[in-house]
Write a structure and sequence with these properties.
By secondary structure, the chain is α/β, with parallel strands linked by helices. The chain contains 11 helices and 7 strands. Strand 2 (138-143), helix 8 and strand 3 (164-168) form a beta-alpha-beta unit. Helix 2 (17-35) packs antiparallel against helix 3 (42-56), helix 3 (42-56) packs antiparallel against helix 6 and helix 4 packs across helix 5. The longest helix is centred in the first third of the chain and has 19 residues, at 17-35.
């Protein structure tokens, strides 16, 4: 059975060890695509390659594993709740993919990060933990009011609230100001509106604010309704994207040296 078909059968639940086992060869297979990137800053390429390689081989630093264990305990508590449990189990990124997010942020060392789609705060927490371990950097995370209010207590309980600025409201309204405040942005996670037109519109607002060599991660690029695969193809082919690769559900793009961002 092809790996993609196997993953469709395995997800959810996202915490299955079988999901991690299925993803590891996909991660390794995604590495050669990055080698074809011309114009991608070597430092950004090296950060993403190292993040993927170490995750696939299970060579995640002990301090990151310790934080991940704390966050997974928090995930388990959320999954037991009557109001959010089913959504947490079915919608949140599985542990191996949030490990990739943590590893990319850890290796890249960004000072300014932007996340669209706070959700339950699990991806937010992994990225914030990487910033905390790096000893520098802030993450601005945007979602509707109800979601940021749901995520905030967990981030505080994990001791990561100081690394995250939660911005509640409609993203199309809050994004321009967030980009202005966060520029130059060195790392982006797009995991909010999964419609083609709005996601690509968000990208065009973000790109003038990103730093040369910024890393942009896009979730759910495998969705079979056609919109997200088209979104990912458009992002991978964008004139500002120097290198890209796909790990079934995640797309990872590296912005070219380009012009300096709007400040």
């Amino acid at each position: 059975m092809p790996l993609a078909a196997a993953l469709r059968k395995l997800e959810p639940p996202p915490d299955s060890a079988l999901v991690a086992a299925a993803y590891r060869p996909l991660i390794l297979a995604a590495l050669p695509a990055l080698a074809r990137g011309e114009g991608a800053p070597p430092r950004s390429l090296a950060a993403v390659r190292t993040a993927l390689w170490t995750t696939a081989l299970g060579r995640v630093p002990a301090e990151e594993r310790a934080y991940a264990d704390l966050i997974e305990t928090h995930r388990a508590r959320l999954a037991e709740r009557d109001d959010s449990g089913r959504a947490v189990r079915w919608m949140s990124l599985p542990p191996i993919l949030v490990t990739i997010l943590m590893r990319i942020v850890r290796e890249l060392g960004p000072r300014s990060c932007l996340e669209l789609g706070t959700g339950f705060g699990l991806s937010t927490a992994h990225q914030a933990a990487a910033l905390e371990l790096n000893g520098a950097g802030r993450l601005m995370s945007l979602d509707i009011e109800g979601m940021v209010e749901l995520a905030e207590p967990g981030l505080d309980d994990l001791g990561l609230g100081e690394r995250v600025e939660l911005v509640g409201g409609l993203i199309e309204e809050t994004l321009p100001g967030a980009c202005e405040d966060a520029a130059p942005v060195e790392y982006v996670l797009l995991d909010a509106d999964h419609r083609e037109e709005s996601t690509l519109a968000q990208l065009e607002v973000i790109l003038p604010a990103v730093a040369p060599g910024a890393v942009i991660v896009v979730d759910d690029v495998n969705w079979e309704d056609g919109q997200m695969p088209r979104v990912w193809r458009a992002i991978a082919a964008h004139e500002r994207v120097a290198a890209s690769t796909q790990l079934y559900r995640l797309g990872i793009a590296i912005v070219d040296e380009g012009a300096e961002p709007v400040r």
